[in-house]
Write a structure and sequence with these properties.
Layout (H helix, E strand, L loop, with lengths): L5 H18 L13 H24 L3 H8 L2 H16 L1 H17 L4 H33 L1 H9 L18 H55 L5 H54 L2 H37 L7 H14 L15 H22 L2
Helix pairs in contact: 1-6, 1-8, 2-3, 2-4, 2-8, 4-8, 4-9, 6-8, 6-10, 8-9, 8-10, 9-10, 9-11, 9-12, 10-12
Length: about 375
């Protein structure tokens, strides 16, 4: 049986994310990366959709339902632009984090116990990424296949997105073709760009669990040294020093993740609440078929972010419990001081937040779902006599 290494799985996932990002000209890990023509095209797509979406809503008014169909996906466009800005401006963070994690996995390729723990983590993460991509594909397919479905069923032309191009008469044949091509271009950008960014975010945060799991194994090794019949104070001191340095690296990495994603989390949650509320309203009032698929993708995306925040908090708790569980009372006095310092720092660890206003976790996901339903019920009460 071929020996599996976590490094190979890590590199596989990075390679997939890079292919998706390269479609939008955002392969930040490329040597001497520079924004290119595809980067400009992606930027044009996102910015133009903000304009054409508002323009279309104005054109369709006073038909409130068609206007809402035009503006509902705007949250995804805003989200994509913010993620694109974040990726380009902070590309050194993505490059450094990738190198840090790759070196981390490479360091334990030849250590079966550590490698087995990391391989298990990478398998779970790859499965989660596949489910996320599947939900995004369902959402995009709901829009992309809708014109074909509508034509086969009713023999009439319709659009993937309810978005018009200023100056183009969509009622003519070529106007319809140009408008539909523009919409398909926007959908292609969305599936590649947002999937690439969210895959990398999942990769970075899930690997925090790997860092903590390896850290816990080393604490158990320290405990074994403390309980050994022939104790070696030097080995114990060196092991503890190694653990303290690793703990510092974990806290540093957590802090960088929170700093880079704090705005992204806020935009993600705000746009998801708006898009899900309007989609639910349109599905209820008009049976808007693309809205159903869109909701699947949006719910999975929001769930992903909240689960990643939960991983953050759970792993911080794991660190505290792991430190407390070792036979610390057998340490020398100087080593106990070092352990106390580490324990104190672990009690003041960083968690992912929504713009610094609220923690990002699964409890918040439940509250967000309740809030979306409340907004939906409010919209229904306005529209129904």
């Amino acid at each position: 049986m071929k020996y599996e290494s976590s490094l190979e799985k890590f590199q596989e996932t990075v390679k997939m994310a890079r292919r998706l990002a390269d479609f939008c000209g955002l392969d930040l890990l490329a040597e001497n990366y520079r924004p290119n023509f595809r980067t400009g095209l992606a930027l044009f797509g996102g910015c133009s959709y903000l304009v054409t979406g508002v323009y279309s809503a104005w054109i369709f008014y006073p038909n409130i339902y068609e206007s809402l169909q035009a503006v509902t996906p705007l949250g995804m466009a805003l989200q994509g632009l913010v993620k694109m800005y974040n990726a380009i401006v902070y590309r050194s963070f993505f490059q450094d984090s990738h190198q840090y994690l790759e070196d981390f996995h490479r360091a334990y390729v030849e250590c079966p116990q550590y490698n087995a723990e990391l391989v298990s983590l990478m398998r779970k993460m790859q499965l989660a990424i596949k489910l996320l991509i599947l939900s995004y594909l369902i959402a995009i397919a709901g829009f992309g296949l809708y014109p074909l479905y509508f034509y086969l069923l009713y023999g009439e032309r319709t659009f993937a997105l309810n978005v018009l191009i200023p100056g183009v008469d969509s009622r003519t044949y070529w106007g319809y073709v140009c408008t539909l091509a523009y919409q398909m271009f926007l959908l292609a950008l969305a599936i590649n760009g947002i999937t690439a960014y969210d895959t990398v975010m999942m990769l970075f945060i899930c690997n925090l669990a790997g860092l903590v799991d390896v850290y816990k194994i080393k604490l158990r090794e320290l405990d074994a040294l403390l309980l050994a019949p022939n104790r070696s104070p030097k080995k114990i001191h060196d092991k503890l020093r190694e653990i303290v340095i690793e703990h510092y690296e974990i806290l540093r990495y957590e802090s960088e993740l929170d700093e880079r994603y704090i705005v992204i989390n806020f935009v993600q949650v705000a746009s998801s609440v708006a898009c899900l509320t309007l989609s639910l309203f349109l599905c209820y009032m008009t049976n808007y078929l693309p809205g159903y698929a869109f909701m699947i993708g949006a719910v999975f995306q929001l769930l992903e972010f909240c689960l990643l925040g939960t991983i953050f908090s759970v792993k911080n708790d794991d660190v505290i419990v792991a430190i407390y569980d070792i036979s610390w009372y057998l340490l020398d006095r100087s080593d106990i001081k070092m352990l106390n310092f580490m324990f104190h720092r672990s009690q003041n660890s960083v968690n992912l937040t929504i713009g610094g206003f609220a923690p990002l976790n699964i409890e918040v996901f439940v509250e967000i779902m309740k809030t979306i339903y409340q907004y939906f019920a409010m919209l229904i009460s306005f529209m129904e006599p």
